[in-house]
Write a structure and sequence with these properties.
Rossmann fold; single chain; 18% strand; UDP-galactose 4-epimerase, domain 1; two-stranded parallel sheet; binds nicotinamide-adenine-dinucleotide
Length: 308
């Protein structure tokens, strides 16, 4: 049975709509009455993340690669695009380096071309690595493709002329539908705690953990604004991964914390400039870590029997 919702008149294309950020964004946009077309090749995203949306009359999933001709064919009336189609987890970028770089380059150009041809506003996901710190963007090995893909998307978006573009830099986003096994730190910690395993974290590693609902509020505010940014999307406070893990273990009631010595060659943590984001968008993160972690653990308990 399809549920009717009052329509805002917006038609928003969410590339990567079956992914972690994209699936939550699609849900929020539909809830306020936007029409949403998700475009996703289901390479890292999962159909299960959006399965309860497919019955909604204003939602369409188009299974396609954003960088291929025809992905956007027939989308005549578009008001906004949220461009999130790029593997987001470190493991996925290592497994699929060419796909990742193609999505970040050709995919971003195709999404910008679509925005330009339809007069739509486009919001492009970058990442904290794009602040230009050479110690990060120049890292060899696993981190290089991930850092380069976010930088590529941001640079292409910044220099594409004749389009209303906004750039967002989400920091360490956590929440339901971030699957354990894909190498992201928050999901790795939560899964290990629930499995009563050792949770290993690096000493003095500090991150800006931001709950998915806060992140979605910021993405929606960015779609609705006219600012280019870039805007940082970070959590209410910088916490060490040890504090994050300690809270997860306490809430799960299981798991053991092991703190490994700091790796001095690892990328240095960035701090989000949330005063600037507030000045540009009127947004600040508001969900406390304990609440976000409780919701994340509740969801993860339900899926831990799935294959990783
Ligand atoms: N989650 C975070 O903490 C975070 C932080 C910084 C930046 N970002 C950026 O935000 C974006 C989304 O991240 P996420 O965490 O949702 O990642 P994700 O991997 O969960 O989702 C990406 C989605 O895009 C789809 N996709 C990938 N390549 C595609 C292509 N060529 N065509 C169509 N669909 C494609 C995948 O199937 C998946 O559904 C990425 O660009 C990521 O780098 C995320």
């Amino acid at each position: 049975m399809k549920e009717e919702s009052p329509h805002t008149g917006n038609h928003i294309v969410v590339t990567g709509g079956a992914g972690f950020l994209g699936s939550h964004l699609c849900r929020a946009l539909l809830a306020r009455g936007d029409r949403v077309t998700a475009i996703d090749n289901l390479s890292t995203g999962r159909r299960v993340a959006i399965e309860n949306l497919t019955a909604q009359p204003h939602f369409t999933l188009r299974t396609a690669d954003v960088s291929t001709p025809g992905a956007f064919a027939d989308l005549a009336t578009i008001t906004h695009i949220a461009h999130l189609a790029c593997p987001g987890s470190p493991k996925a970028t290592v497994r699929r380096p060419t796909d990742t770089l193609r999505a970040a380059s050709a995919g971003t150009l195709a999404a910008l071309d679509l925005a330009a041809s339809r007069g739509a506003r486009i919001v492009v996901a970058s990442g904290p690595e794009s602040n230009g710190d050479p110690r990060n963007t120049g890292q060899a090995g696993d981190f290089q493709v991930h850092a380069l893909s976010t930088l590529l998307a941001e640079v292409i978006a910044r220099h594409y002329s004749g389009v209303d573009v906004g750039i967002v830099r989400p920091f360490e986003v956590y929440g339901p539908h971030q699957w354990p096994g894909d190498g992201r730190i928050a999901a790795t910690i939560c899964a290990a705690a629930l499995r009563d395993q050792t949770v290993q974290v690096i000493d003095s590693d500090v991150r800006s953990f931001v709950y998915i609902a806060d992140t979605v509020d910021a993405l929606v505010a960015m779609l609705d604004s006219t600012t280019t940014g870039p805007v940082d999307i970070g959590g209410p406070a910088a916490v060490t991964t040890a504090e994050f893990a300690h809270t997860a273990i306490a809430l799960a009631g299981s798991g053991w914390l092991e703190i490994a010595p700091a790796d001095l060659s690892a990328p240095t943590a960035h701090s989000p400039d949330l005063d600037r984001t507030h000045a540009l968008l009127g947004w600040r993160p508001s969900r406390p870590l304990g609440d976000g972690l409780r919701y994340t653990l509740d969801w993860m308990r339900t899926i831990l029997s799935y294959p990783p």
